[in-house]
Design brief:
Strand content of chain A: 25-35%
Largest sheet of chain A: 6 strands, mixed
Order of helices and strands of chain B: HHEHEEEEHEEEHEHEHHHHHH
Structural class of chain A: alpha/beta
Strand order of the largest sheet of chain A: 6-7-8-3-9-10
Strand content of chain B: 15-25%
Helix content of chain B: 40-55%
Oligomer: heterodimer
Strand order of the largest sheet of chain B: 2-3-8-5-7-6
Number of strands of chain A: 10
Distance between the termini of chain B: 29 Å
Radius of gyration of chain A: 17 Å
Structural class of chain B: alpha+beta
Number of helices of chain A: 7
CATH topology of chain A: Rossmann fold
Distance between the termini of chain A: 10 Å
Number of helices of chain B: 12
Radius of gyration of chain B: 31 Å
């Protein structure tokens, strides 16, 4: 399935809509000059979808992901996440919503190097005020789910790139988010490890996790159920 | 959990942490010393003056006790006035005069003669010394301080000679005195050789009959020192000052110590804030990507700022504790240097260790440290998360 320019949720085949971006423009100022990263993008993500957002570097993939997850807000247009308009929410309200409903995975993992894998996964659970014993159990079970039950006490520096990304994915899943947004999750990984991440995403998706992944990686994109091409700040076919 | 992260961050960079701890500890030590100095001398001086319970001092008009060689004439008449004044419970007259104290005739190597300050006192009413050994001096007797007795090699019952040091008409007069006791002279400065003799004896020897240098007045328990001072000042042509007045005048003379202490204390606080602020700014700058990621996954600003501020607080708490100890040690060393300050009684301390000084230094340090950590942390969380992530991701 492929979206067309400026259309909204053309062929999403699922039940509930998680997030909808409508005619979204994102403009930055760089050295005083306005730069349009997105130029009127519309996209709808339904529950249980696995979407690959593709496009060349600088096309606006990451910006789109940030807008869908409420990390950033649109200059114009609307992004509605589970019925809430990010543009009308305060910075902290968006942060609270992200904590509960959005799982984010970064190309460079961004794990806290001084914390163990288990503690890294515990972090977002702790931010919700969950008691230590419960959050430990949850974090351990998430790490087991991504195949790292034997690495709980390891710090990121003691893990391989693939393992670190798995920890990051477990952290993203910590609060059972409505959607997992992954920005170039295999960008720092070798082919074999990338394949492992794809398999993990496919498994998570088959278990019901909605995933949107921005990637250059054709193998990862091939594993997605829907593809969205972003070119020069617009969604193309 | 983020607090645990803060601790590990500090442990992870041992060299930076140790250097920061040392820097803050030294600045804290300086702050502690300046706080001890700022209030110490004033308090120490006041405690010294009130140690023997004489709340008023009478001296020749326009002078303070020990200030000049001027004397009060017609003391017997003044005593009558004092006796008639309400609230006066006791009078301790003092005549101070320079004398030569000698032991032996100069033939033996151990024979000595030194210039001393003889204090003619009434042994039943005096606030100048504490008796350590022996008895108060009566007729033809002298009381020495411990260093002088040791220097002369004399013991209780030994004889010393006291000669008048100046005055054309009395120069050369001398008297053989028996050492009656050893005392601790409260107002002696370093290098002074104080001795105590009966007042009448010194008056006779120096020709200053019926004269005293000053008198110490004990005020009755039910009387106010200020009220007695006012009454006496009106009744006699002498200078009457309360202890508070003397302390105030002394403070005025020593005010530059306090100013110096306040300036240096402020400098140490500024140095601490700059040091902690720089360290935290560098630390935050190195972790902008992590901070952006934490914000992106939904960790609140408050938690992140709290964690980074905790880091600077931990630094300051540890360094502050070390700095307090270092400050006390340095103060003891400085005290030995400043105790040579000319004219000040040895018993006056420049650096007085008070719990409130330590507590104030510690609280100020923690306050400065938390603000210095808070500012870069707060600024970092105000940056746009998306922009930071764009910058961090390739």
């Amino acid at each position: 399935m492929t979206d067309t320019v400026g259309s909204v949720n053309l062929e999403a085949d699922s039940d509930r809509t998680i997030v909808t971006a409508s005619d979204v423009v994102r403009e930055y100022r760089m050295s005083g000059v306005p730069v349009r990263a997105l130029r009127g993008v519309s996209l709808s993500v339904a529950e249980r979808e696995f979407i690959a957002v593709m496009g060349p570097s600088g096309s606006g993939k990451s910006t789109l992901l940030h807008l869908l997850g409420g990390v950033d807000v649109a200059t114009s247009g609307r992004v509605v996440f589970l019925g809430q308009d990010f543009g009308r929410m305060s910075v902290e309200a968006r942060a609270r919503l992200r904590l509960r409903k959005v799982g984010l995975v970064f190309q460079r993992f961004h794990l806290l190097p001084m914390l163990t894998a288990l503690e890294n996964v515990e972090l977002p659970i702790a931010a919700l005020g969950v008691r230590r014993a419960e959050r430990r159990d949850r974090a351990a079970s998430l790490l087991a789910r991504v195949g790292l039950d034997d690495r709980l006490g390891h710090r990121p520096g003691e893990l391989s790139g693939g393992q670190r990304q798995r920890v990051a994915i477990a952290r993203a899943l910590a609060n059972e988010p409505a959607v997992l947004l992954a920005d170039e999750p295999t960008g720092e990984l070798d082919r074999a490890t990338s394949h492992g991440v794809l398999e993990l995403f496919q498994r998570l998706n088959s278990e019901g996790t909605t995933i949107v992944v921005a990637t250059h990686d054709p193998e990862l994109a091939a594993g997605a159920s829907r593809h969205v091409e972003v070119v020069d700040g617009r969604i193309g076919s | 959990m983020l607090a645990r992260y803060s601790v590990r961050e500090l442990v992870h960079r041992p060299l930076r942490t140790i250097l920061a701890l040392l820097g803050v500890a030294v600045a804290t030590a300086m702050l502690v010393d300046m706080l001890m100095l700022a209030g110490g001398i004033q308090r120490s001086f006041a405690e010294l003056l009130s140690a023997r319970g004489y709340e008023l001092r009478i001296s020749p008009k326009g002078t303070l006790p020990f200030d000049t060689e001027a004397t009060i004439p017609n003391f017997a008449s003044l005593m009558d006035t004092l006796a008639a004044t309400n609230g006066v419970a006791g009078v301790g007259p003092v005549l101070a005069s320079a004398v030569i104290l000698a032991h032996g005739d100069g033939a033996a190597p151990s024979d000595l003669s030194v210039r001393a300050i003889a204090l003619g006192i009434d042994p039943t009413e005096q606030g100048l010394f504490r008796l350590i050994d022996g008895e108060d001096p009566v007729e033809n007797e002298v009381l020495l301080d411990q260093p002088t007795a040791e220097a002369f090699g004399v013991a209780l019952g030994d004889m010393v000679e006291m000669r008048v040091a100046g005055g054309l008409d009395v120069a050369g007069r001398s008297a053989q005195m028996r050492v009656s006791g050893i005392g601790e002279f409260l107002y002696a400065a370093r290098g002074d050789v104080p001795i105590a003799v009966p007042l009448e004896e010194l008056q006779l020897l120096t020709g200053k009959l019926d004269r005293v240098s000053f008198a110490m007045i004990r005020v009755a328990e039910d009387a106010e020192a200020e009220a007695v001072r006012t009454e006496l000042a009106g009744a006699a042509r002498v200078e009457v000052v309360t202890l508070a007045g003397i302390v105030a005048q002394a403070n005025e003379r020593l005010s530059y110590f306090r100013q110096l202490a306040l300036i240096l204390g402020s400098v140490s606080l500024i140095v601490t804030s700059l040091l902690v602020g720089t360290i935290m700014a560098v630390s935050v700058s190195e972790r902008l990507g992590t901070i952006a990621a934490l914000r992106a996954i939904g960790i609140s600003r408050r938690s992140i700022v709290g964690s980074l501020t905790a880091e600077s607080l931990i630094l300051c708490a540890l360094a502050g504790a070390a700095g307090l100890g270092l400050g006390v040690i340095v103060a003891e060393y400085l005290e030995t240097i400043l105790s040579d300050f000319p004219g000040l009684p040895l018993a006056v301390e420049f650096f007085v260790l008070r719990p409130e000084s330590l507590a104030t230094a510690y609280v100020l340090l923690l306050a400065v440290g938390s603000v210095a950590g808070l500012v870069p942390a707060w600024r970092a969380t105000q940056l746009e998360v998306a922009t930071l992530l764009h910058a961090e991701e390739p």
